[in-house]
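User: quick one
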Amino acid sequence: MKLTVNGETHDVDVEDDMPLLWVLRDELGITGPKYGCGIAQCGACTVHVDGVAVRSCQLAAGDVIGDVTTIEGLGTPSALHAVQEAWIDLQVAQCGYCQAGQIMQAASFLDMNSEPTDAQIDAAMSGNLCRCGSYPRIRDAVKLAAIKLRRV
Amino acid sequence: MRTFAVALLLATPVAAQDAPTKAQGLAAWDDIYAVTSHPRCTNCHVGADGIPMWDGLTYGADAVHGMHVLAGESRVGAETMPCRTCHIGAQSGNATPHAPPMIDDAWRLPPAELAWLGKSSDALCAQLRDPETNDGFAMDGLATHLETSAFVAWGFDPGAGRSVPPGTLDEMVVALNLWAAAGTPCASDP
Amino acid sequence: MGRVKTIARRSFLIGSAAIAGGVAFGTYLYKREGENPLLADLKPGETAITPYVRIDAQGITLITPRADVGQGAWSMQAHLITEELDIDPATATVSPGPASAIYYNGVVGAEAMPIAATSDTLLARTGRGAADVMGKLMGLHITGGSSTVPDMYDRLRMAGAVARETLIRAAMKQTGLPRDQLSTENGHVVLPDGSKIDYLDLAVAAADIDPVQDVALRDPSQWRYLTKPQKRTDMVAKSTGTLTYGIDMVMDGMVYATTRTNPAMGGGIIGFDAAAAQAMRGVRSVLPITGGIAVVADNTWRAFQAAQAVDCDWGPSPYIGNTADQFDAVAASMTDDHQDSRFKDEGDVTAALDGADVIEAEYRIPYLAHAPLEPMSVVVKMTRTRLDIWTGTQIPRFVQANMAKLTGLDADNIHVHVLMSGGSFGRRLEDDYVAQAVEIALQLRDTPIKMIWQREEDFTHDFSRPLAIARGRGAVKSGALDAFDLSIAAPSVAESSLARLGQPAIGPDVAIVAGAWDQPFAIPNYRVTGYRTPAMVPISSWRSVGASGNGFLHESFMDEMCHAAGVDPLEERLRLCWHAPSRKVLEAVGEMSDWGSDLGPNRGRGLAFTLAFGVPVAQVVEVTNTDRGIRIDKVFVAADVGRVLDPVNFEAQVQGGVIFGLGHAMNCEMTYVDGAAQQDNYHAYEGMRLYQTPEIMVRGLENGDKIRGIGEPGVPPAAPALANAIFAATGQRIRELPLSKSVDFV
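Assistant: Done. Structure below.
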């Protein structure tokens, strides 16, 4: 099957029911999306499909309709996305393992809702687990990213 | 808790030309209510707050959906986290316990005016027979909806150890038709 | 109590011997570090001036041997070196270096000794000296016990200074200029005319010079990085998905594996049928390993699927299998013959309680899993003569030694490449998952193997923080605490985890009472007794170790006693506290939280204090009792680490510790049925999520006499402060964790 990831089209030979996460990680070598729980409880595997946040551990390869963007495709160290910039400005990450998922969730959320309320931020970001407890800074970084994005 | 007017009905079929009695219609409604008041339905048929429920599996009665999920006015989570972030609209299904169920349709909550959660039998009866509050369905349309909705089909076969409403989808359709044929009686009708 | 005395005498003897052998406090000679392990691997044109600085034509590598498990250890270690080396940490490569005895931890061993952090007696100093010597002799290359900063504060700045001075000496040789005409700036030696020589161009010359030994450390007034807000060296990579964790390591020709062992702890495997699994797509082999099976495939998911398809015949667990029975065993161990320690015994508790109106309470805390978000994973490659291991681990030398035993290879031929860890909380003080991968590699040589556990395997094979029961008995007199007698029974972490590392556990287990026996309060009659429950399911250290639960046990009873005495919990603690830095953190949270002011209806404040790892931490939690349950509104924290080296990461670690403590107190427990853990994924072990996260105000104080670490001390007071707040808001005293057994949370 064909998958377009970060603007590049790949031919992959996998079972229809292989989760996109493992196609990305083990077949395409794209390791930004992380395995945490396998049942959509943690959000570490979050990617975008046509711009909308999706748990890639739940999306079967055969069901992918649209372009996939991973954290690597959102922005790079030399060309950061505003959300990534906010994450760095506020020094959000601790172990960082959940942060690719947090950032992808936040980017999709802010794309759909550019002026979120505090309550909406809480609801949008509570599907992503952080075991280190970086939540206070995630909250602040989403707000900062919203401001940065509105300036763009 | 399986009140089977339907089973009774199938065993002793009412002659086609005879309209069912009000009593038969009310018995059919009881079967319908046993389904529509079941958590498999009311977990999503919630009110304007848009907070789905997680009554079932290990979460306990009255448990709200984890992760502080709010479906919002959009009823699909567009304001915060879309339902489809986890409930993929896909053929694949998902039989893993505690993983998000999926169907081949866009996961969403029914409109707030179709809330069933916490409603009494009589209130829900009045609500379901009125096109103003049943999403505009005439009774035959409602039966067709039951037979074709991916949500309803999933609700009777949710897999992964999730609880199921009493009876089968076919029995539900039969009960609905019977209730309709009896003139959609409700217990408080004069 | 003969046992306790013997141990105290033994540790004193170790200390005495150490002093006789020439351990001195105060002066620091750099050459005492020993042989530089970097020299063995140098290529032409590379130099390693100290074990912490390697330079070649491409750049400077800073060796940061303490593992980074999210606490920012790599970045902090890099900043300690560069503060003296005069380079921008962002321009250097940061590497944890090889497993080596030279990277021994000289501080963490003291945590296992019954020495109060507040004590500065000769015995205490001697014991700490002994810990340093033991760490060095044993080559304890280990990360834990919030020891990275206290252990590395001088060592790494010294390493940076030695490297700088050696580079300057190379420049002196090259230019003929005297030392006092040369300075350093941002990776260069600066000449009097303002021209500069790049450090990289001095590397070859520096390699021929014996490292300069007599250097002085800069005065803190000259610091550019330390004590200022820092930018963590890993932050950009962690925000762009470009950082390689253990689970991300990729090698040519690599195969993917997973393992399944008996969910009933220690039960072993009787037999298995792999026919169905063998036939699945991509499956290369199904192999036996100790206690279970491994599947090797061409993709992790295929390995996961196939592992589930193996039909395993599991044996029964040899341990007490059900949690109710486990608690019964703990309760039954609170007897004289199980007494493990009584490090605190002041006044005469027995006499004080005799005839008094005794206040009694019993508390329970559950087993807790570490459950770092990156599941256990490792890449191994084994040839006939060499084993390479890539993983996130806190114990590289134990990994080396244990895998040497497993493979028969010399430890020198086992190369442990430490990678960034996606969390640990103590889980990576174990090497069980590495051993499994090596067992696969022994059956599949010359092929790189990446082994990843499924989350369910990770949860059910975690070595939990132990459960415990405490009984408090106390008495008040004239509106003040008079007698405080706390008995704590729990299985021993030291006994369980050291056995797995091939080390003996000698003497009482301080962890059973840590965070309780060593609190700085002058209660007239004050006793803390530890009882050791015979070993049950395997257990291990969990963020803040003994104090993680003992904070709840001690501070819940303290709160009950204060209420019984009719005194304000803050005022009474301040009255009883004899340790100045501890008093200051209590005063600080009092001020921050406006303690004593009216919060309005259905609201309450709770206070707790724990001194752990030498860090006094006071927390005030504010809650509201809503119609949907308890909502945690705000937390105020004051902590004293002596000197806050990075206020940004300090705040993050304290907030993270509070959230870790609150989240587990709210809703986490591990329970067992027939020896098998019942919680196998995050739906059943949720912790805190963002919407529940309160505002957390943090203040760092600097009154302590020594510099301390902050990765763990924020955890212990969070649970009791929350429980005490719930009592204040509702009148409901909860004596068992998790609190969700008793109340709902919004």
